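In this supplementary section we document a worked example of the pipeline. Step one takes a protein sequence of length 274 as its only input; no multiple sequence alignment statistics are reported here. Step two produces a three-dimensional model, which step three serialises into structure tokens for compact storage. The input and output of this example are shown verbatim.
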Amino acid sequence: MSSYTTLQIERHGHRGEVILDRPDKLNAISRAMFKDLGSAFAELDADPDIWVVILRGNGRMFTAGLDLIDAMNLLAGPSDPNASQAVRSELLYQVIRDLQASVNAIAHCRKPTIAAVHGRCIGGGVDIVTACDIRVASADVQFSVFETRIAIVADVGTLQRLTPIVGKGIAREMAFTGANVGAERALRCGLVNAIHEDAEALLVGARAMADSIAANSPLAVQGTKRVMDWSDAHGVEAGLEFVAHWNASRLQSNDLAEALTAFMEKRAGVYEGR
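The serialised model returned by step three reads:
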């Protein structure tokens, strides 16, 4: 099992939790944290005992966004003073693609993912929470696509993932202005599914949601996520064809037999993912 310098992984039964853990830096997202996030979600994706994942942060807030000191070191470019602008541009391109790959690992995780967001969620924080399936928040939450306010075009996923969640107008307002979006507006526009009173209540609520997901057959839940992702990317007709093939090849599981037996016996199903 991997060890991480910027986050923690906890396992509670079939629930995994990825915890941003730089509270002294307000969980600012460094290149190391991006790398750790990609590795952590790949680890939980490969763990057959984990059926759902919560992403949350330690300390005062979810994240203050990009670690600007780390970013300035990145923009300094290669140590070779004779490196051409072409070489510098190629190196920066590769770094951006690596950061994107780390966030893509969240989006591509086969297990459902829930972002539990408290306090501020700035810049790169929006990149990572929009890669999750579901977002829930505390009443003090503030989301901000902050990159335009520091003369950057957001490049790690927000501009691609935010519009399908909140709609074109709100996504562009957020991206163009960098303004804060509080809890009530986030709930109205669909950026979050639920608001909880404080960080403690948020964690209780997120865990309850995760456990309700994990109570179902993991084969069915993961298949449902795969079909929904495919349909989002390819449209209704392609999605219908995809799910027909999916169920034709995967419907006859031990979990289905258990579900039918449990229904007849008027009890909750006990699933094993087989």
